[in-house]
């Protein structure tokens, strides 16, 4: 089975970013959505990015962000990848000179393959749990059996993943990558280094 990549999202502190790197995470996520308890300011993000060593992918998470605001952030932050977690159309995700992934919230009855097909320009698609009125970070898992096999783009699995369940999730879904936030936290926005290490270890052992 191919190596499954691992992203630790909702990083708000330099020490949490470095803990993720030390554990062997492939990517970290920074949330630019003011309503999130894991939101970061541009100065916070600058400090985190400046502390990272090479070969760690940095992902900026946005929710229906105005194009002018997003461009202003990209002017000062060297983010590698954009993650769109709102109701953005394909056109709204394009044109930022960065690859992007589109988050789709999954619920029973969804035609996941058809929804993914709308975002043909995406580098990957993240599948998260549908909770009304909440764009992500719910800490709740969805029914992994809803994910079709042999989808046309790399799939990033998110939603309620923990060190305890991520191995089973990988074995069932066989995603390209997994994405965790709340499952490795001491409290919202503050990561637990031991949980990060346990999560990455479980991913590598799957």
From TrEMBL:
Question: Which BP terms does GO give this entry?
Answer: L-tryptophan biosynthetic process
Enzyme Commission designation? 5.3.1.24
Q: What Gene3D superfamilies does this protein's entry cite?
A: Aldolase class I
Could you list this entry's UniProt keywords, alphabetically sorted: Amino-acid biosynthesis, Aromatic amino acid biosynthesis, Isomerase, Tryptophan biosynthesis
Keyword Amino-acid biosynthesis included in the entry's annotation: yes
The GO molecular function terms of this record are:
phosphoribosylanthranilate isomerase activity
**Catalyzed reactions per annotation:** N-(5-phospho-beta-D-ribosyl)anthranilate = 1-(2-carboxyphenylamino)-1-deoxy-D-ribulose 5-phosphate
Supply the name of the protein: N-(5'-phosphoribosyl)anthranilate isomerase
- Protein source organism: Pseudomonas borbori
């Amino acid at each position: 089975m191919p190596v499954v990549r691992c992203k630790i999202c909702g990083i708000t502190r330099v020490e949490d970013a470095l803990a993720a790197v030390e554990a062997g995470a492939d990517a970290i996520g920074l949330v630019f959505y003011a309503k999130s308890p894991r939101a970061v300011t541009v100065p916070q993000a600058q400090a985190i990015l400046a502390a990272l060593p090479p070969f760690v992918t940095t992902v900026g998470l946005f929710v229906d962000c105005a194009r002018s605001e997003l461009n202003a952030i990209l002017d000062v932050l060297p983010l590698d990848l954009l993650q769109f977690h709102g109701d953005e159309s394909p056109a709204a995700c394009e044109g930022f000179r960065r690859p992007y992934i589109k988050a789709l919230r999954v619920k029973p009855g969804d035609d996941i393959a058809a929804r993914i097909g709308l975002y043909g320009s995406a580098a990957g698609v993240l599948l998260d749990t549908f909770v009304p009125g909440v764009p992500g970070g719910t800490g709740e898992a969805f029914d992994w059996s809803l994910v079709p096999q042999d989808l046309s783009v790399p799939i990033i699995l998110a939603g309620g993943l923990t060190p305890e369940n991520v191995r089973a999730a990988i074995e069932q879904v066989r995603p390209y990558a997994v994405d965790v936030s709340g499952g490795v936290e001491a409290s919202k926005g503050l990561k637990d280094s031991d949980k990060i290490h346990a999560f990455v270890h479980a991913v590598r052992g799957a």
